[in-house]
């Protein structure tokens, strides 16, 4: 198979995969007796047609940036962290403990502390699978899957038996104190005179997510650790021969990945719900896989892919609200994106290569 | 605890272990041939839906079973295409399959039955009926062993007995036939199998197809044997527990039986006693739910006997040119 030009590999192949996923999903919509064009229009206008829609799209996108980066960092070291879901849930626990039990004078300090706590909790949740992979050779995919379930049970226990306020039947913590309230995007843009819908969940965490993108870029391509991490990902024996400690790299990479996934909690727990509820991650950890694959594990790609999935989620919610098409349509689209940009990547690449390389040969 | 209570828990444990056993053996065939499959959950789910939907529409549970197996096979085909033909990442393919099933079942279910993603309740011939084993009644008078036979072993649906029969069958196929030898070899060293002139691709597709059939049985049992309709996300992580059982069983058929029985029993116990009072400590229900996963991590950590997966697992085979 001939080598594709880099631009085709990075842009055309994921785009073709995306288009195939959409065409197939819209076929499903047609088969189930709905109008796909109408559905698509509603999704686009619901997600991007108003600042209200943007407020939700950006909120979801913030979640997906964090989990996408988490998966991507691990991918660079050839590790598949499928445990973002659990790490983000435990990160939520970190945020809740910091917000509930320490009186904060101002949200800025609270945000810093909550971010640190979320990252530490997420990183620690990734530590055991990382250690087992590095030291005992247990497959990281299996252990992180197991840890997702263990996290769900642990959170269930903590919320029901420990953190639930007396007299409440909800498996959730009390509402966080007022001082930890994060300014929403609407408030912030309103302050500088840009009209933006109030009451949408997008908040200041979006900027933390953008900072995380910059951080990951520098980490992967501009630091010694990033170099070691990529070398380890390309060839483990070569990396070991070059003096890179495989145990150290595996553990550090997974902890950074877990920290990024955990950080998501400042958006959904501190920014949106302002209390910790059961199942607060809502599958964002898994969407991170789609986002990282679609974005080719590069922060800029992840940014766009997260925006796309954010819009998809908001559009899907609108669809569920106004039509009889369920929002689960988004899960189908997501599955097909993972399939075509991840598992069947080689197939898509072959198709693109046929179109791109054949004409050149004919000329020569 | 009374003897009857023990029997009831054992009985319920056997019921709950059956889907795990099917799925675990499914994973066993696939992974022994070198194809990782974390899409067991998705295949079970789609089979549960199509078996319930078809059984309701036609009134025949057998047609439902066939439809369930067929739908599971379609997803197996996708997994095979991605991981064998196009040499993609098998884990990512599995993730995609799980999501595909989770989304499609609701999307199709809602437009088919308009019941919020469920199928209507199945009655009569649209469900598997329980079978009484011979002499169950007359033997129930025998002390201790009699009730064990009539209460625990007898009175299950057809598929429970099929699942139990699948264990020796799997053992026989894998360890006593030429096909089984080749299948195991292809999971350990595909290049050697290829050199011997046997098709690696063919064997792996066969393994993936067997996996699809068994997942289909697991899903059909959930919706038409254990339950009486399809409910959204009704597999509830059973595919992953089966995966855990597979590791627990160290990729061996008889151990798979023991592991799934253990996990089924754990589920039955936690269903009956939401919080378990052991005298010294009270175990919360959440701990019982997490126990299969915790045990698997302990096994994976290698502290209680090492679990070594097939050597070529997860690696696409590239023929030399």
TrEMBL record, chain A:
Keywords: Cell membrane, Membrane, Transmembrane, Transmembrane helix. GO terms for molecular function: transmembrane transporter activity. The chain crosses the membrane at residues 12-33, 53-75, 87-104, 110-128, 140-160, 202-220, 240-264, 276-293, 300-317, 329-352. Pfam families: BPD_transp_2 (PF02653). It is found in: Cell membrane. Its main location: membrane. It is a multi-pass membrane protein. GO terms for cellular component: plasma membrane. PANTHER family: ABC TRANSPORTER, PERMEASE PROTEIN, GUANOSINE ABC TRANSPORTER PERMEASE PROTEIN NUPP. This is Putative nucleoside ABC transporter, permease 1 component.
From TrEMBL, chain B:
It comes from the Bacteria. GO terms for cellular component: plasma membrane. This is Putative nucleoside ABC transporter, permease 2 component. Coiled coil: none annotated. It is a multi-pass membrane protein. It comes from Litoreibacter arenae DSM 19593. The keyword Cell membrane applies. The chain crosses the membrane at residues 12-30, 65-84, 91-113, 158-175, 205-224, 230-248, 255-274, 286-304. It holds the Pfam family BPD_transp_2. It is found in: Cell membrane. Keywords: Cell membrane, Membrane, Transmembrane, Transmembrane helix. One of its GO terms (molecular function) is transmembrane transporter activity.
């Amino acid at each position: 198979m001939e080598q594709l030009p880099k631009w085709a590999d990075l842009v055309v192949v994921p785009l073709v995969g995306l288009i195939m996923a959409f065409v197939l999903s819209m076929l499903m919509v047609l088969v189930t007796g709905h109008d796909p064009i109408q559905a698509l229009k509603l999704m686009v206008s619901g997600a991007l047609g108003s600042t209200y829609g943007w407020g939700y799209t950006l909120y979801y996108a913030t979640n997906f940036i964090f989990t996408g980066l988490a998966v991507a960092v691990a991918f660079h070291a050839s590790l598949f962290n499928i445990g973002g879901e659990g790490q983000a849930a435990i990160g939520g626990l970190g945020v809740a403990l910091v917000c509930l039990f320490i009186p904060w004078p101002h949200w800025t300090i609270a945000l810093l502390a909550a971010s640190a706590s979320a990252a530490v909790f997420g990183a620690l949740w990734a530590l055991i699978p990382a250690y087992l992979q590095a030291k005992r050779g247990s497959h990281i995919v299996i252990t992180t899957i197991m840890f997702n379930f263990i996290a769900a049970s642990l959170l269930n226990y903590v919320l029901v038996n420990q953190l639930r306020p007396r007299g409440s039947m909800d498996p959730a913590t009390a509402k966080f104190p007022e001082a930890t309230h994060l300014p929403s995007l609407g408030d912030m843009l309103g302050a500088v005179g840009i009209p933006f819908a109030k009451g949408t969940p997008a908040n200041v965490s979006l900027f933390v997510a953008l900072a995380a993108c910059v951080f990951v870029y520098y980490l992967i391509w501009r630091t010694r650790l990033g170099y070691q991490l990529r070398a380890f990902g390309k060839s483990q024996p070569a990396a070991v021969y070059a003096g890179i400690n495989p145990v150290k790299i595996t553990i550090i990479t997974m902890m950074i990945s877990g920290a990024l996934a955990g950080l998501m909690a400042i958006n959904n727990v501190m920014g949106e719900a302002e209390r910790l509820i059961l199942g607060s991650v809502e599958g964002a950890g898994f969407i991170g896989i789609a986002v990282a694959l679609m974005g080719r594990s590069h922060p800029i790609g992840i940014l766009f892919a997260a925006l796309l999935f954010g819009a998809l989620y908001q559009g899907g919610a609108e669809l569920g609200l106004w039509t009889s098409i369920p929002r689960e349509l988004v899960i189908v689209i997501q599955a097909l994106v993972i399939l075509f940009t991840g598992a069947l990547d080689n197939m898509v690449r072959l198709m693109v290569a046929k179109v791109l390389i054949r004409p050149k040969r004919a000329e020569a | 605890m009374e003897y009857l209570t023990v029997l009831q828990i054992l009985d319920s444990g056997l019921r709950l272990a059956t889907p795990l056993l099917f799925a675990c053996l499914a994973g066993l065939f696939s992974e022994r041939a070198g194809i990782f499959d974390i899409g067991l959950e998705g295949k079970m789910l789609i089979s549960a839906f199509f078996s319930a939907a078809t059984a309701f529409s036609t009134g025949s549970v057998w047609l439902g079973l066939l439809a369930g197996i067929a739908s599971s096979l379609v997803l197996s085909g996708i997994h095979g295409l991605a991981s064998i033909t196009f040499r993609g990442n098998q884990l990512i393919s599995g993730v995609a399959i799980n999501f595909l099933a989770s989304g499609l079942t609701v999307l199709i279910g809602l437009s088919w039955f308009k019941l919020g993603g469920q199928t209507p309740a199945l009655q009569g011939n649209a469900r598997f009926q329980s079978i009484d084993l011979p002499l169950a009644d007359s033997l129930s008078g025998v002390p201790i062993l009699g009730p064990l036979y009539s209460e625990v072993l007898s009175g299950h649906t057809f598929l429970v007995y099929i699942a139990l029969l699948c264990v020796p069958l799997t053992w026989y196929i894998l360890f006593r036939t030429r096909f089984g030898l080749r299948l195991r070899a292809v999971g350990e060293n595909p290049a050697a199998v290829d050199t011997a002139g046997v098709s690696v691709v063919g064997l792996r597709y066969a393994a993936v197809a067997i996996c699809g059939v068994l997942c289909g049985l697991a899903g059909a049992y959930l919706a038409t044997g254990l339950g009486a309709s399809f409910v959204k996300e009704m597999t509830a992580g059973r595919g992953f527990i089966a995966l855990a059982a597979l590791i627990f069983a160290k990729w061996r058929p008889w151990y798979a039986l023991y592991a799934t029985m253990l996990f089924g029993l754990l589920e039955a116990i936690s269903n009956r006693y939401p919080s378990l009072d052991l005298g010294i400590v009270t175990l919360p229900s959440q701990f019982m739910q997490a126990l299969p996963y915790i045990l698997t991590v302990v096994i994976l950590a290698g502290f209680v006997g090492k679990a070594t997966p097939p050597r070529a697992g997860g690696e696409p085979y590239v023929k030399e040119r």
